[in-house]
Specification:
Length: 95
């Protein structure tokens, strides 16, 4: 005679999991992937060895200002706007 399970017991049943064998991957593959990854340098280039929170004003050294070329930035922005408008026109034509 098989004992019938109650509905709640069916859901609470624990099934044994089969152990999966780990796939062996050679180290050379990891080295190739690692060499292909390029991590850019930190934007602020600020080193904080104590891991404390430091406000941006204190991170910046006095007299350490970068010259921003606004003319090139404005030209670049205009080019991006023109490209965006062209893309919108092409999308409208395709619809």
């Amino acid at each position: 005679m098989s004992r019938s399970l109650k509905p709640l017991e069916d859901y609470c049943k624990v099934e044994k999991r089969e152990k999966k064998e780990k796939e062996y991957k050679p180290k050379r593959v990891y080295r190739k992937v690692k060499n292909n990854i390029n991590i850019p340098p930190v934007i602020s280039r600020y080193k904080n060895p104590t891991s404390e929170l430091v406000p941006l004003e204190l991170r910046r050294k006095t007299g350490d200002t970068e010259i921003i070329n606004y003319k090139k930035f404005i030209d670049f922005n205009k080019c991006l706007d023109q490209i965006e408008e062209l893309c919108k026109k092409k999308n409208r034509e395709l619809e």
